[in-house]
Every structure is written in structure tokens, then in C-alpha cells.
Amino acid sequence: MPVARSWNGLESLSHNFLTGKLEDFVRWSRRSSMWPATFGLACCAIEVMAVGGAEYDLSRFGMEVFRASPRQADLMIVGGRVSQKMAPVLRQVYDQMAEPKWVISMGVCASTGGMFNNYAIVQGVDEIVPVDVYAPGCPPGPNTLLHAILTLHEKIRTGEILRRRERTGAGAGVDLAAEVPGWTQPLATPVHLGTPR
Amino acid sequence: MAPSGSLAGQVPELGGVPSADSSGDEVFFPTRASYVSLATALRRVGFITCSDLCAVDYLTHADRPLPAGVQPARFEVVVNLLSHAEARRVRLRVMVPEDDPVCPTLFSVYPGTENMEREAYDLMGIRFTGHPDPSRILMPEDWEGHPLRRDYGVGRVPVQFKEAPGPR
Amino acid sequence: MNDEHPGELRGDDQATPDPIGGASLRLAAETGEGSQELAPADETSLVELAIEQGGVLRLPESDALDPDAADATFGAGETMILNIGPQHPSTHGVLRMMVELQGETVLRSKPVVGYLHTGMEKTGEELTYVQGATNVTRMDYLSPLHNELVYSLAVEKLLAVEIPPRATWIRMLMCELNRISSHIMWAATNGMDLASTTMMIFGLRERDLVLQFFEKVTGLRMNHNYIRPGGVAADLPDGWEDDVAVVVDTIGARLKDYDELLTGQPIFRERTEGVGVVSAELLLALSATGPILRAAGVPWDLRRSMPYLAYEEVDFDVIVGTSGDCFDRYAVRLNEVRESIRIVRQILEKMPSGDYRSEDKKVTPPARARINESMEALIHHFKLFTRGIEPPEGEVYVAVESPRGELGCYLVSDGSNRPMRMHIRAPSFANLQAVPAMLRDGLIADLIAILSSVDPVLGDVDR
Lengths: 197, 168, 463
Hints:
The structure holds three protein chains of three kinds.
Chain A: H1 17-32, E1 36-37, H2 43-52, E2 75-79, H3 87-96, E3 102-106, H4 107-112, E4 133-135, H5 142-158, H6 160-168, H7 176-179
Parallel strand pairs in A: 1-2, 2-3, 3-4
Helix pairs in contact in A: 1-5, 2-5
Chain B: H1 7-10, E1 19-22, E2 25-28, H2 35-45, E3 49-57, E4 75-83, E5 88-96, E6 102-104, H3 113-124, E7 127-129
Parallel strand pairs in B: 2-5, 6-7
Antiparallel strand pairs in B: 1-2, 3-4, 4-5
Chain C: H1 20-31, H2 46-53, H3 61-64, E1 80-84, E2 96-102, E3 105-112, H4 120-126, H5 132-136, H6 144-159, H7 165-193, H8 197-218, E4 227-228, E5 231-232, H9 240-263, H10 266-272, H11 280-285, H12 291-295, H13 302-305, H14 326-350, H15 368-371, H16 375-386, E6 394-402, E7 405-413, E8 419-425, H17 427-431, H18 435-439, H19 444-454, H20 458-462
Helix pairs in contact in C: 6-7, 7-8, 7-14, 7-19, 8-9, 9-14, 14-19
């Protein structure tokens, strides 16, 4: 049962030929001019800058404008390890972005905590924000990041990404247990800090 | 640039302080009470900058080799000083006991130790009396515990093929 | 600020040691809360207020949210505490600055760090010595080879092993190329912070040349895990001389583009000259090292003063500035790129042949082909990759000159295959302490220029 909690744009209209074309146009515009928010944290940030440089030009995709203000950005490329102190800041910046917004988790540290499986690093930024594309690598080369960005563009082009969101209600402030029947919170293994070695 | 002779000759405050040679570095072991005045004396002789101050937790290696006259303690505050004129380093190791993890601050002698002492407090729990801003620097302000201590777990979450470390 | 400190330290004539009583107390006062006798703030000039009240804003972050609740007595005029970062395009990573502003003038400030704390020193205690280089390399991510170098040198000092000359020269080559790429990356981001986007594109283009060479040699563009205890991971590939020659020739020729774009530009000069001046004495007291110290006039470079690797056998100049402002820091770094190119050209001529890693079987795994032939080689390989190197008990401190300053490693070994304590002395951690003094009574518009000229890398600061 689709969960139409909010005006999901054109996706919630029943289609005819004209609105189908309009939807394609909207999707094209969304993916052709997707502005990243500057959220480079560590080493991956340098590779993000390299992608924005001349060799791996991000400007051919319309994405060279890195907006510092989250209000003006569509895409958050979380590049680097997210520490415990940075996690609330990350969530706050994500919340300040306007819909539609996407998240690419760049690098292994952002995707799963990477090689730093310890007290200081959040084990995967998807514990804090919903992620659309994961780019592996330490750091992912510019080609990998471009692949991730183009994968995201494909997901937007086919409309898959917004269909998934509609189904599960992913996004800020949604109570999944109430909305989606049969969904249970996956159990997290508690980590006791300060356990005697 | 060879260092010019032993320091004990130039610095009278070093007399009686146990010393050792560690892979070619000179190391002295002042007590907590005399350590600031010793650093002051070394600064007067030319060790104008403090390269590094850190804390070490010897919980699992209490029987490390120490020179005679030094009572081992759980924590050590290690200070590396550098002299530009002679291009030499000297190291001070101060024993700090577990039940009273307090040490005087070097801030008045070397203001550059401000951040380093904050880090030693944050990660190891050693308080520095007289420090102008004794607060956590790397962990969030409301964090409990001192992560770099040897009895503080790494905090590893179990993943496929590698479970969390059990108690040692 | 320079007038307040006559007799600035010059590295050569250190014959008269700095008298402890006056200078140290004054320096502590400048960085501390100041003396207790204050004239009314209206009658005190801003410069004197700087000395009285110190440059560092020692206010807990929670109090900064409600300044009225803070115990801060200010003079005439209202002040405001502004928060910059941690998510900010120009803070060079996740650095947060709390600045106290009076109008547009910065009074006191406090760099808040910890947003990238990764617990690398704790992780270092969990990894073996063989794995340790992968961990430290990610600290200062703009010059990863220097991190690996200092860690490997510390382990080798504990083990007391000799490294073959070719390994030493390869390390020197890679580290100097890394210095070039780091300084060019700094110039790129500095240019972009000062609104010269072209500089960013130019710098990234040059840096990519070096990174492509690194990829050819080490397999990775960044975070290479190439310099390991015992030598380096692999020999230089065939044809490396041509590759390196192309890299340094191209970069050397393009440096004049930077001169055209930045050094000669009146806007850049006005934004950086006379901005962020700080005396050498204060920098030494604050344990600042590297280009910011050399820009203030102190000719201290570990490669020259306490040489490591083979720096005694190559010819290079130590670049020293005069006034310690942002422009001098830029000039020092740009000229250090030229000196590094000079060193690399000498290495091209003088590279010795031989082994690229130590033959000592307790340190270096045997060649892969030998594992099939010799039982002993197989056993050594197995022991090294499961158990690892086991240095004798002891503690060492080794320091190298990274592009940001003195990068040190304090390693304590308890005889097992893991370090008992691995502490990295991060240059940016200490350099950030000088930032409040540099920002003092400048304009907020200068804050970005100054912060950028200090070149903090937050991976280094927070570890």
C-alpha cells in the first residue's frame, strides 16, 4: 500500500501521456543539475575535490557547484569518517536540506565504519541518515565516485528511488512500525563501552 | 650536529634525577613535585620548545624497565623537549599514580602544551592542576570515560568473521 | 605585534638563552587570561587589550550558546560570539571556530576540534606493527607517506635494523613528491578560499600528475601503505625516471602560472600581506613548527637541522620568511615546492641500486616466489603475517618534517607484536594553538585567509 504521507510531487498523480512526459522532464532536471553540499570530512573529501577538478570534471554533469548552504543543495556526499562528535552535526545538516534530497555514502568509513571499528566512529552513516548509493573504496578513486553519482542519476531517471521511498516511507520523522505492516525494528547488538578487556 | 655532552653537567637541577638512555635519547625521570622546575631549568638552557606531551597507561606492562630510584606508577606523562641551538631532544617521564591522577601543568613554561594536556586529560584521565581550560578536546563534552586507557574497550562492533573482543 | 617582541629569535645566534622569568610569563599571559590589573576598557587600545585579555577564548561551548550566562566582563561596546563550522567550505576540514566579535573585529577565538576524532591511537594498539602503517597513513591525509615514514622510522629505531640505501632514497623520493603534492593542494585550497577558483583547478591538475605517479608505484592515489617498517612495499617500476622527470618538469614550468595568478595580483597581496602576523617567539612557545614558523623567520627545518633518511646528501635551501604574515607563509610553501623539485632532480641522478627492503627475516617477508621453494621462507612469511614483528621493550620518539611541521611518533613497545602505546605528535594540533594569536584584532574577513594559511589538516589534529 503506497504511503502518500506528503505531496510526493508528480508521482502521486495518476498518469496520462502528458503527465508522463512531464514526469520525465522533472526527473531529467533533477538529475542534470544536482548540487552537492560540501560535506567532505576526511581523506574522501580530497577525492571529491579531485572529481570537481579538471581531470575528472564534475561540471559535465552539472554538479560542479558545491553549495555550502544545505538549503541550496540536493545531494549530500558524505565523504569521510563520521565521528561521534560529528554525527549530530551531520543529521542537522541533512535535516536542513530541502526535499528532494539524496545521500551518497562515499568510502568505506561512511558506509560501514571502514577500518575504524572502534568507539570513536559511527559504524556507517546509514545509522543516521538514509543512504541512496554506497561507494566503496578507501578512498574511492574519482572514477568510483563518478560511477556512484551516475548510478544515482540512473535511479532518479527511472523513478525507482522515489518509488522505494514511497513504499517504505523512508525520510525524516516517519514511524515505520506504524506505517508499514509487518515491519520490525532490526535488533542492534549493544556495544558496551568500557568493558574490561 | 652532535649534542654537546651530558645535560647533567649544565643543569644543576638534574642532579639526582634518575636518567636512562633509550635508543640514543636521553630520558630523565623527575617526580611530580620537581618536574615543572626541571622543565623551567631546561628551558633556560635552551630547550625552548616542547615538541610533545602525551600520557601513557602502563596497566598491562607494569614491569617495564626503569632506572633505580623510580617507583613505577600506572600512568606516565611523557614530555619531549627540543633545543634549536644544539639540535637535541630530551625526554622527561613523570610517574602519575592511578589513585591520584593529577600532575602540575607545564602551561606556564610552555604555553604550547595547552592542547596536549587537554588531550591527555580527555583520553587518559590525568588532570593538570593550573591548566587554564581543563575540558575535553577530542571527545564530546559529555562523554564518560577515558578511551585511551588500557582497560577501556576498543568498542568494536561484531561484524561478519570478527566478533567483538571478549574480556581479557 | 612584532614591535612588542624585540630581539626575535634567529636560529643561528642562539648564544643568549631566552631569560625565563620575563618572557615565559609574558607569553603565558598573552595566551592566558592576562594580568589582574586592568585599566577601563575604553581607555585601553585594542592591542593592549589583546595582551591583557589574551587571544584565546576559554569559554565552554555550552556557555557560548547563552552569552549572558557566561562570566565574561567586557568593556564598552557589545561583543558577539560567532560560530564558524564545523561544516563550512573554508575551514579545511571539520574545524569549528568560536570567535568573539566586536563589530567586524575579532577579539578572542577558540578552535574547537574533535569532529574527526577516529581513535587511531587506540586502533594502533590493536593492530600489529605490520598493519600499523595502514592506520597512521590516514591521519594527515594530504601527506600520507610522511605518516608512514615516521611510524616506520620509529619501529626501525626500536628494532635497531639497518635499511638498505635504495629503500632510504626511494622513501626520500616519495616523501618529497608528497611534499610537492601537499603544498600544491594547499595552494589550491588557499586560492579558492581567497576566491581564486582558477587556482583550485590548476592545483588539482598538478596534484593529479603526482597522484598518478603514486598510483603507478604504490597502487593507490592516497593512503598508500607503501613505506613500511623494513623498507618499502615494492620497488619502483621500470621507467620511473622518465615519469618523475615529466612530473617535475611539468610542475616546475607551471609554477610560473601561480606567480601570475596569485603572487603578482594586487588583490591577493592586499588580502594576505600584513595579515595574521605573529612573532617567532610566540610561535616557539606555542610549539608551532613547519612553514608557519619558518615564515616568521626561524630557519628550523628538521631535514637540515636533525637530518633523517639521506637529506645530508642532497642540496637544498631552507626557505625562511621575514614578517610572519599570510603572504610569507604562501611564499615559503611555494618556494618549498621549488626546493623539493630540486631535491627530486638530485634523487633522479643519485638513486642507488640494491634492495628495496631490509633482508632481515624478522622484519621483512621473503619474496613470494621463494615460498614455494624454501620451508624456512614459508615459515617466516607465516609468522610475519600472523604474529608480526616483535620489537624489544622500549620507547622511542622520532620526528620528521612533514609539509605541516614536525610530525613525531612516540612508540612504546612491551615486547609483544602490538604497540603498547602509539602516539603521533601532530603538527597541525600544535599549529592551531597559534591561530587565536593570529586572529587577534584582525577583521573577520581575514579569518579565512589566516586559517587557510596555517594549513591545518583535521585528520592530523584529531587523529
